[in-house]
Amino acid sequence: MSNSAPNLSYPQTEKDTSVIDDYHGQSVADPYRWLEVDTASNVKKWVTEQNKVTFDYLSTIPYREKIKERYADLFDYVKIRSPFKVGDYYFFYKNDGLQNQSVIYIQKGLEGEPEVFIDPNKLSAEGTASINLIGFSPNNKYVAYSRQDAGSDWQEIHVMEIASKKKLKDVLKWVKFSGANWDEDGFFYSRYPEPADGTELSAANDFHSVYYHKIGDDQANDVKVHDNPDNPKLYHFTGITEDRNYLVLYVSTGTDGFETYVKDLRKDNSPFVNLFSGFKNKSSVVENVGDKFLIMTNIGAPKYRLVLVDPNNMDQSNWKDVIPENEHLLNSVSTGGGKLWANYLKDVTTRIYRHDMDGSNKQEIELPGLGSAGGFGGQIDDDHFFYSFSSFTRPTTIFKYDIETNKSTEFFESKLKFNPDDFVEKQVFYTSKDGTKVPMFIVHKKGLELNGNNPTYLYAYGGFNVNLSPSFSTSRVILLENGGVFAMPNLRGGGEYGEEWHQAGMLHNKQNVFDDFIAAAEYLIENKYTSTEKLAIAGGSNGGLLVGAAMTQRPDLFAATFPAVGVMDMLRYHKFTVGWGWVPEYGSSDDPEHFENLLSYSPLHNLKEGVKYPATMITTADHDDRVVPAHSFKFGARLQECHSGENPVILRIAVDAGHGAGK
């Protein structure tokens, strides 16, 4: 491949023209298939060569060092997550400023002196070990925690004694997507079989199963509690009620609907009782009330409701509405202090209401402003808890909430090296291609002149029922300080307006997501926020797919594109690690009906030779075992082959990093 941007000479990338797949009678070439084997020596050599081109190019950008210095200055502030109570102790995560990973602290009582409980930064020389506390024993004596390394989704579960900080010998491997749900002697967790050597980060993960681990036992002695040998492509997740009477099992084919079961732990060898079958809906157990269950469900309620159900009489006519569906999305419901805490999204910003356990006595919790809040709820006997609030221009502030008085007091506020009042954040509604009104947040400096000349960063996701609500990012401050605009539309495919909004952007409706994104760009240009020459688009994972689809459908519309860890090969995504779990969202090329739709927008397959594409930096990581780097490798190789213009097209491939925790 000979074409290159100014001062750029791309690595030669071998093409194997013999690799041709037959999809339902249609031949599709895949000449870069060899790049899927990310452990092969020729692929590693190619990665090294691509990174050299990328970093040599980035080093020539004159203002890069100034941005780096300002970013380090802005990011160097103390960050704390909301404390939570466990027995006599409080735990919280704290980052002093520039630490790779937040440190977990413990203190006895509210007035106790904080002590380091676990410092993940000391566990790996590269600072890529991530620790999460995932479950506490009923007597508050032990904690199970997960360790993830270099961004991999694989977890190891370890156990510590809380008071002594003594680490037990228990180590559980090949765990993925799991918590630790304790009863008296141990906990339930979900794992996969051990993969073959060399395939840990790429092979399809099958037979996700629930096990029980007794403290002190070797993992080989753990008891398998539930699996489905006839259907290896299922997820099995568990939860447990606060009184430890019921284990809850969720079974799903992927990232959409799921089945719900409960198991009575008071009875030896009790079966899992099915509450909700099929994979079309989402019904999750919030808590039990005696032998009945509070269920948050979208059955008959696309914006969700809370119902009380009797497992002995599951007919819908017997359900009792506790919090009925209304015009806003019921985002979550939690319990604590003998109350229900309902978290709503109203045009994508948080509203919190407290209710008595029967749904009565509804009261709104006064929040500091429009933004995102979380952390409401706790144990049944709690008289207070801590919650967080943030917005686009204000980092996380922690509040202590007193349940009896219904009052919030500020507990922790970040000390900033910029003035949030210098900026304005607003929400607009624009019209997509089919006439749908789509919301978009826009953030910029106060007094910014709308002259069409402002550098603008358009970021979105649009999928998997995920909500993009206001959040703070230090790196955006640099853009805003320099007269830039940040824009974030809430595309269909997300869950911001409930299940109907989600379904309008999945499967055969996926093109709506790309149309919404393109319409957002056109709105920003038409309203003089920016111009094609100053507009960059970005997104990660499913958002990387979004960017890839948008830049292949409208290469004329953007100056720069940043697809991160994107799903770029829509015909083969389901063949790697947990990609099969996205079939409910995207469909599968194994199905002739979905094949045509996937091929119509698959970024890899819609690149065309001789087209002038925007300046592009594709980012991925060598330990990404969720969206394997092969997607980005193949897309990057093909983009460098097709691109006719002088814009740089580079790949930035992080080493010892991945899609998940610990980057």
Write the layout of secondary structure elements.
Blueprint: E1 20-23, E2 26-29, H1 41-58, H2 64-75, E3 79-80, E4 84-86, E5 89-95, E6 103-108, E7 115-118, E8 129-136, E9 142-149, E10 155-161, E11 166-175, E12 181-182, E13 186-191, E14 209-214, E15 223-226, E16 235-240, E17 246-252, E18 258-264, E19 272-276, E20 283-289, E21 292-297, E22 305-309, E23 320-323, E24 329-336, E25 339-346, E26 349-356, E27 363-365, E28 372-374, E29 384-390, E30 397-402, E31 407-413, E32 423-431, E33 437-445, E34 456-459, H3 474-481, E35 485-489, H4 499-503, H5 510-526, E36 535-540, H6 542-553, E37 560-564, H7 583-586, H8 592-601, E38 615-621, H9 630-642, E39 649-654
Parallel strand pairs: 34-35, 34-36, 36-37, 37-38, 38-39
Antiparallel strand pairs: 1-2, 3-5, 4-5, 5-6, 6-7, 8-9, 9-10, 10-11, 12-13, 13-14, 14-15, 16-17, 17-18, 18-19, 20-21, 21-22, 22-23, 24-25, 25-26, 26-27, 28-29, 29-30, 30-31, 32-33, 33-35
Summarize the structure.
By secondary structure, the chain is an alpha+beta fold. It is built from nine helices and 39 strands.
Commentary on this structure:
- This protein has 663 residues and is α+β, with helices and mostly antiparallel strands.
- The strands form nine sheets. Strands 32-33-35-34-36-37-38-39 form an eight-stranded mixed sheet, sandwiched between helices. Strands 3, 4, 5, 6 and 7 form a five-stranded antiparallel sheet that branches. The chain has a four-stranded antiparallel sheet with strand order 8-9-10-11, with no helix packed on it.
- Helix 6 (542-553) links the parallel strand 36 and strand 37 (560-564).
- Helix 2 crosses helix 3.
- It is globular and about 70 Å long.
- The two termini are 33 Å apart.
